[in-house]
Write a structure and sequence with these properties.
InterPro entries: ArsR-like_HTH, HTH_ArsR_DNA-bd_dom, Metal_resp_trans_reg, WH-like_DNA-bd_sf, WH_DNA-bd_sf. This is DNA-binding transcriptional ArsR family regulator. One of its GO terms (molecular function) is DNA binding. This protein is of the alpha+beta class. It has a single domain, classed as Arc Repressor Mutant, subunit A (Orthogonal Bundle). Helix content is 55%, strand content 13%. Strands 1-3-2 form a 3-stranded antiparallel beta sheet. It is globular, with a radius of gyration of 15 Å.
Amino acid sequence: MELELAARQLEALGNLTRLKVFRTLVRAGHDGLPVGALQQRVDVPASTLSHHLRRLIHTGLVVQERQATTLICRAAYPAMNALIDFLDEGEHRGRSAGPASMST
């Protein structure tokens, strides 16, 4: 993963509303959520949700799919996993990543 992409994704998730939207979609699983259901769960106006979804889509963390008249939002799990792997660099998988075991 490129450093610039990781920075953009982390910056997008640094906003409380976007983080809430993303976590809600991650918890919804691979089926995702219709925009209306997502709006109810995160309790924000439609225009606000649209703004934040655009940012998450632009950074590749969320995907949308139209099913007839319904717009379904999903967390982009490959992008999320790539970001996690980038942060972890694969070095700490399977061991404690506490301060004592982290190298500087």
